[in-house]
Structure formats: structure tokens, C-alpha cells
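Sample A.
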Amino acid sequence: MVASSRVLARIAQQVRRYQSILTAARSRDVSEADTVSIIRDMLADVLGYNKFSEVTTELAIRGTFVDLAVTVEESIRFLVEVKAIGIELKDNHVRQAIDYGANKGIEWVVLTNGIRWRVYRILFKQPIDKSLVFECDLVETSAKDNQLLECFGNISREGYTPSSMNEFYQQRQAVSRFTIGALLVSEPVLDVLRRELRRIAPSVKVDEEFLRDVLENEVIKRDLLDSEHTAEAKKLVRKSRKVTLRQVRKAVNEKPASLDAVESESAGEQV
């Protein structure tokens, strides 16, 4: 994690303070404008940005203003789409912010109602897509939660760098429930399961398709398998497997010259 222990301590302390502020705001069912004001304060108090010079409501894209844009040294780090604190976040809420980011070449977008926070990375491909990198309920989550601190530490003023955000994205992709679900139905894992089942019941023959069917229909939650993120996770698993296979083939086919020499010497000694 890039952020220092001092920054992480500030984040934990301020999150704890804002938990009561957000709970009170929810009980009053404050408007979107009031929610934006709270988020602007949080960007300053929790994440360390100057709310007067680095957080703006004046960024216009295609004639429409973004709720908030975080800019440091004339470089836009991320956009923030804000909904009223009583509004449940939905996928279509982030579409406008994704369009904003895509038109400006901005990779990161935050969607929040103050309590619920979602951090997305925009995927610049055809068509433009998004990947949900982090999500949490700020009131229910512990202020010292490691995943919360990791996310907020990376998007903080002190911790943000393009390389650290890319590393954060890759790490979150690797441990996401969608990637783990894709791994569970991949060939290597199915092979391991078959071997273990043979140890339990040597006379029972279980084929790969039967195991995959059981996992997909009886073990893994359907919402995980049917999610739009699952296809992306499966691509990641297949790509990783192809890289591993290439490395294995290379190791098998390229025997070091020094090893050949040793074997030749050994053969000579035996003669």
C-alpha cells in the first residue's frame, strides 16, 4: 500500500467520525445537494484533498456538469457521481459518469450516496466498459477494515499514483469473487477435485463436465455466474493459464547449455 501509516490513521479516524454524520443525514433523508456537500467535506477530511482548490463542481463535459471532480496540479484523478443519501445505488447511475470519464480520458470514477461507495475503473475498449473494483457500506464497515483502508489509501491525495492504482486494480481483480468463481470451474481445479474424489471413493468415476455442472448449479451462487463481471474474470483466468502453459513449454524445450555440458562430462566419466 502506497499511503503511509499516518495517512491511514487519519482515514480511519475520519471515517469513524463521518459514520455518525452519515447516519444522522440518512435519518433526515437529506437531498442530493446536501449529500454532495457532505461528500466534498469527506474528500477533504478523509482523503486529504483541498476542497476549495482540488475538488470542483464546475467540470463540464458535453455541456453537462459532473457532480464532483478531483483535480491535482491540473490533472483529473477521478470523477465522483453523487446520489442523495436515501437513494439506492444502481448500475445505471454510473453510466453518465462513465461517459464523462470516457470523453475526458479519465480512468477512475466513484459512485456514492455517502454511505455506499463504489469505485470503478473505466475500460477503454470498444464498446467502452467498466469494472467495479471496490464497494463498501461506510456505516456498516469497520473504520479499520483493511480493504477499506487499502482503497481509500490508494485514492487519497498522498497515496494516489497511476502505477499504484493500476496495481490496486490488478490485485482486486485477482481476488474478486468473480475470479475465484471462474477458477473453481477451470480445468486445473476440476482436475484436483477429481483426484481428491477418487481418494475418497476409488471406485467412483467422476468426469469433468459432471463436476462443473454441480459447481455451477448447486455450489456457486447464480448471481455470481450470471454477473456481467464473470466473463471478464474467465478471460483473466484463461489468459493466466495460457501464460503458465507457455512458460512450462519454454522450460521443457530450452534446456540450459551448462546442463548439457554437465551431462556430457558425466557421461564421459561413466565411460
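Sample B.
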Amino acid sequence: MNALKDLTFLKTSQISTDPEILKDYGKDWTRYYTPNPIAVLFPQTTKEVQEIIFWARKNKIALVPSGGRTGLSGGAVAQNGEVVISLSKMNQILKFDELNLSISCQAGVITEALQDFATQNGYHFPVDFAARGSSQIGGNIATNVGGLNVIHYGLMRDWVLSLTVVTGQGEILNLNNGLIKNNTGYDLRQLFIGSEGTLGIITEATLKITPPPQKASIVILGLQDYMHIQNIFVQFRRHLTLFAFEMFTDKALDYVLKSHTHLKPPFQKNYPYYILAEVETANEHEEQELLAVYEDCFQSGFILDGVISQSQQQAEDFWKYRDFISESLSPMTPYKNDISVKISDIPNFIREIDIVLKKEYPHYEVVWFGHIGDGNLHINILKPPSLRTQEFVISCQRVDEILFSTIQKFQGSISAEHGVGLSKKPFLHFTKSKQEIQIMKEIKKVFDPDNILNPGKIFD
């Protein structure tokens, strides 16, 4: 492409048209979109990102921002001849500020690297999820990730003090300057959090950190009936300090055990549903309180079996039952729905959706898991080996209409933490009103008047 010759402000090593690189950087974990970018650019500074946007505006070239590409909604897919901007070379931690309890970094820093840096300095960055080893901070912010500890620590949004962003006009915005209190009109920082790269490209961030948590224990519980999940959650939350409250089914656990043969089943018997809870046990009183709550749930018939971690290694192994689910399902090319409803609606919602899925997917295997503590459920429909991917996706999208109608009935969300992207775009109206969508489109025009930033994502 002739326009690539104008990228003289980048080094040759920062521009790639290698077919394998294009294929890799043009997709995310959805797997069922065909990547077709014309180039991948690797800026190293905010200024270079700005120059790329000026270049793209001049040449009318669409840009797709790329982080760790761990998203599950097609938000980082380049399938229409776009140029991908990878932030992977912008991976420096810039400043540790103990007085202000913050870390400043470039957008391409890996989540786990930031977590480790905080730990090495005696602090904790609590936004955590299974893709921590490959996801990047900029992508986490652009999709407002939730993860495993939302119940205690909140979403990514709650940990962002300030942002440096390059808009679709090429303007560099420094938003909030790391302030805790700043009551001066509209907080534009919040617009870019969760915007999926459609308003601007996040290049730097200042993030809050916190003192490390006290000692915690991991509890695995076996249940016969998902209707008891709510009762267990209420008891645990009322009497204990909860860091996480996760649910997964026997099918999910079975895939994990088959693909990670070094793991042993948590119990001698199998149960239809499992709860994993992370609970603070910093002293003897909290340990005794945990035992009392466990015993009460057992006596009430809410749980049939349970085990509490007795060592750090056992706690880490217990988390693997949950962490490894997505990885274990990946070979089956799952069609994923990442949805949320109010916690109080979860039992009735599961009952209604289970009826729909059994009726509409009689020959498909469906695997459930989710962050019950914040109302987030993940539904994974597994592709039969004999079925072509495109046929499979079309059949799943047809059923999405029914699924999302039920979500709308419960006033829930069609996307809890992976964004809208390409896969949820046709169904945005099930969560957002016409008025909201129109306002979102008008906001997009202000920051990206030429529609060059991640076009076709969220809405057309």
C-alpha cells in the first residue's frame, strides 16, 4: 500500500506486513472472524500514536487498536483492510508513587507484570482475571474489565486515576492528572474507560494500588441445586469478608480436569454445581466464623460437600479449577455470551435461560460459569466438530435474540465485561435505548469525526 511509505516517523522494525503477523494481530479470542489487516504498526510513544492518527486521517485509513487480544467480543478484530496499532512495545512502568498510592505505566504493560511490580513494592493491584498473563493495561481500561475480585475491589474503572489518550482527531488529552478529588465538570476520563478504542487510543495510565490483602482461604463447595447459590452467597457475605464468589458446573470442571491431568477432583463424588469462594481469614476469629458459616450452610442443606484450603499451594490449585475453564474450552471453538443481571435475579434467570438453551441447542453442549458475586454469567456453547464455524455462529446468533430478550426482561446487560465489539453489536438495543445509542454516536463524532478509530465496533 502506497500510504505506508509515508510512515517515515516510524522505524522499519515498527511496521509489519508479514502475513503471520497480520493474522495474529488482526484477531482476538473470538476465533470465528477472519482477520484481514493490511499492516501492523508498533508505536513506542504517545507522540508516535498521534502521528499515526494524523497519517490515518490524511489517508482515510481505519485503525484498530490492539492490546493483548484476549477479548471475547471481536472488539480487536481487523477484518476490513484496517491498520492495526499494537501497543505491545509501549510496555514501560513509568513511576511508582508510594505517597499517592499509584503506579503510572504505558498502555502495553501486561496485567501480571503490573501486579508483580506492585507486589515487589509491598502493595497490591487487585484487578485480576484468568488472562492476566497476556492482557494489557490499555485493553483492560478500554473494556473496563471486571474479573475475579469485583465483589470486593470493583471494576477497572474504580482503579484508574488518570489517562493519557490520543483522540481520533489527533489531540493528546491528559485526563484527571492523578487526582482523587477533581469536581470540575465532565470527567472525560470515564468516557474512555469502556469505549473499546472507538473514541481514542489510551497510551498511558495512572492506576491506584492498595495495601496487600490479609490471609485468605479458598473454599470449594458442591451443590445439587443452583437455587441454593443465592442462600449461600447471603450467608457468606453477611458474616465474612468476601474477595470472590464464583460458580461453575460439573461440565466446566470436567473439561478442566481432562485438559490439566495433574489436577485432582475436589471431591470423591461429582456435583452438578460448584462454588469457589475466597474469604479473608487473617485471624482465628475469622477462621472460626468461616467454619460456622460453612456448617450452617451444610445443616441447611444448601451444600452437600465442601473443602477449605489448608496451604497456599492448595489455595492456588483450587483457583485453577476456575482459572483454567476458558483455556480448557478453547479447542471446542465456543460461542460465548458474557451477560449480567442483578444478583437477586440470578436463580430465576438461570431457570428461564436453561429452558431456552435445552430447547434451542438440543445437540450442542452448553457450559456455564460465572462471577456470581457481581451477577456476571458466562454461557459457552461448544461447536460440534462436524459443524462448519460459520453455520455454528449463525445458529447461535439466532438464539441470541431469545437469550437477550430474556436479559432485557430482567433489565440485565448483554455484555458484562468483554464489551460489545462485533459480536454483540446487533443486539445492543436489548440493553441500551434508542436515545442512549444515538447519544453514544454523537459522542463518537466529537472525538473521532472521520470514523477512523475501530469503526464498526459497538455500532455502525
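B remarks: Residues 425 and 458 are 5 Å apart (CA to CA). Residues 389-409 form the longest helix (21 residues).
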